[in-house]
């Protein structure tokens, strides 16, 4: 609490003010008790209220020891906690400018909102971004091409291995991994129904049997995290039969082994106990009332060779395209992985590079802020290593990490990505207001909560239309960008189509 | 404003809280009804208290509200707080004007008052963390 505040030319000493308040409070109780006794019994309404306040104040000042501020200033210090608690809302609604909020500023969010609602998403006068600092820009051509020459997107996974069950992606954007658990039932179903309508692929996240993802009939990537929920034995090792059973579901088109995640690289998934309902506990095979912390690595993958053979094992069991997802830490380590893949002649069907700026339902702040390489550094590096080792044609490359708008998505394509993952973009399409409460089961728009009351407002049919609209708008802009860059397809994009102050090698 | 995680309350505490809530709600609802139904004893009590004749219905409304809140899943702590407040008012009335044992009915009311006060404390204590701001400091 600040010692002094300045109000309209008058300085108020908060120390004195609270001391005065604390001393006078019991006297106010007695004063109103006297008025109630002597003149009118109705004064006792105030006697009772002030008596409660005096009791709480006494507790703060003389009994509790946990909060120094309350010990020193009593009830008045609660004003600080009150204003601190409404600070995020005040900043978001009133004080922060359109480009200041994190992780997504208001301009970025409103762009997604407009796209998902299918309303005008043009802005006026000029860019709000700072142009005098280092950044990426797409290089347009002097001679844009006409729409008629643009080729439809098509990307086939598994073709490099010549497997029977290849999967051809028809839209370049995939709904990134979000499990039932991280999201509530309605959010999962809205996304899944939207994915079905838009003809896009959806990743199940590492939440075990994807009951609600399957319900809406969209195509799925089943993600297997380090805890292998839904496909594990008691000792966290892979249960081949369970995986085989899941992989044979007609909706499951690919399998993804999550090695690490951008928001918490080097740590396993985390589902806070507040979000573990009876159903989630059953689907994941975990107890209720405890945080679920997945191991930080797959128990089968303790070195490069074992990891490579684990990929092979999953490919053999599932008979589907199998990818791995990781956040880049050390460049030399990634090169060693590629060399090991080359040596064994085993390749995943795709690699997803998750940037350190990636989102999550819950993660320690240090890991979110300070661990892992951001996507626009990691992606060109990975692409370069794959090319240098001559294996770029052996697999597909996907990118994830704040790629919510077509501009950033195109930058990722230029840096080598074949397809894009975004989770938060689609969450915003559902109406996410960035309340930053995903880890507390209190999401006010009912997306990352299992509270029935909070989920009530999430209309699955309406929100699935928003997903469709967002995807259509992205696709429309992709075509316009291709025209501007004079390219016929996304696969023609390269690093040369990207401007940066220092240049990317 | 941040919400509070309610899962810190054990299942035993939930059961105890609900038993207390139901008892208090019944007592308060009955007290409220008697005020609205112009019960003779109630009219007499409020006539005795200076300036309270017309406040009878305000108190009855507060008691009814408290009884309602006590039977909700998410707001019983506010119901208990309102109940405790009305009981404190009653305690002041008994200790300054009405007395505790001058007749059989008053004695009954006093015993009921102390009983509801104790149960309200139990509900408030069990659900203390639900109170915004202040709750987290207890």
Describe the protein.
The complex is a heterodimer of chains A (505) and B (138). Chain A is α/β, with parallel strands linked by helices and 505 residues long. Chain A folds into 2 domains: 4-85, no CATH class; 136-500, Aldolase class I (TIM Barrel), CATH 3.20.20. Chain A is built from 18 helices and 16 strands. Chain A has helices at residues 14-38, 44-63, 68-73, 78-85, 87-95, 106-117, 185-198, 211-215, 240-247, 278-284, 304-318, 331-344, 365-370, 375-388, 406-414, 424-430, 452-455, 460-484, and strands spanning 4-7, 10-13, 136-138, 155-157, 167-169, 173-175, 201-203, 219-224, 252-258, 270-271, 292-293, 322-326, 350-354, 396-400, 419-422, 498-500. In chain A, the strands form 5 sheets. In chain A, strands 6-15-14-13-12-9-8-7 form an 8-stranded parallel β-sheet. In chain A, strands 1-2 form a two-stranded antiparallel sheet. In chain A, helix 1 (14-38) runs antiparallel to helix 2. Chain A is globular, with a radius of gyration of 27 Å. By secondary structure, chain B is mainly α. Chain B has one domain (12-128). Helices cover 70% and strands 0% of the residues of chain B. Chain B has 5 helices and no strands. Chain B has helices at 11-36, 40-48, 56-70, 76-98, 104-126. The interface between A and B is medium-sized, with 34 and 22 residues.
